[in-house]
Amino acid sequence: MISRRTLLTCLGGLALGAGAWGTGAYRATMAAAEARIVKRSSIFQSSAGALEYAVAGSGPPLMMIHGTGGGFDQGLLFAHGLIEAGFQVIAPSRFGYLRSAFPEDDSPAHQADVLAELLDYLEIDQIAVAGGSAGALTSAEFALRHPERCSHLVLIVPASNLTGRDPVEFTALQSAVVERVLNSDLWFWSFATLAPQTLLRTLLATDPSLLAGVSPEERRRADLIREGLMPITQKTQGLRADGFWAGAPTTTAFENIAVPTLIVSCEDDLFGTAETARLLDNRIPDTRLVVFPDGGHIWLGHDAELTREMSEFITAV
Fold it and tell me: Which superfamily is assigned to 5-315 in CATH?
């Protein structure tokens, strides 16, 4: 379990910091967040309600399912290299994120079924499916429930409780503090602005010291992931659901996945997904496992390698 003492210390001064900072920078951040997502996506009316999605690029289709705190925009960011490499990327917003509905059944299995409806609507018969972090659960369920629609499966830093122990379990106090931050755009903005490295370590499970050793492009990607968490109040339901499904002992029958599967993680991911990746490598019949020596939960410094691994895996005969 990750220590969050620094997080609690920083959050203790957020109210003072937010008041002293003024409203101009906060309003500018919210305007930038709105500009990032407005008019870039479409809405499909599924059996579970509205499902937001975006399509970018042209070529072989790939569905990129975002992680915790994301949305369709995070999916496009994760897949930007694949778009440039000649893939058509479909990036949905999962249940409870941005403009997607939050149905009573918010399980990864139900989400997988709704994503199959989206493919019907888009007239796509078969597709490679990738999911990052908590999105890997939905990706795995899609491969299980719709194997004829899934040509390849990619699980990136997969968040799943395979051992009966939640690797990011919060104390009651930590849960109360995080809940307060996630229910206010102003509080979350204050946290992200006043303690960006703490945010990177705690919510994105990546050691901030890695920033010094990566390219400017990778530092910018880290910034974009952090900035992409806003507006946090449009993602609260999805965040809560991810916390439950990723933390509860898994019910996904990974051993029954019958499609070729690429599993990618980083040794120093503070959410412990390297161990999860190795366990999944033993459970899923047809796998390729790649564990980078560093990079944290956002594979910092390895985005180009991840893109290459995925492209070669999906296009290989």
Answer: Alpha/Beta hydrolase fold, catalytic domain (3.40.50.1820)
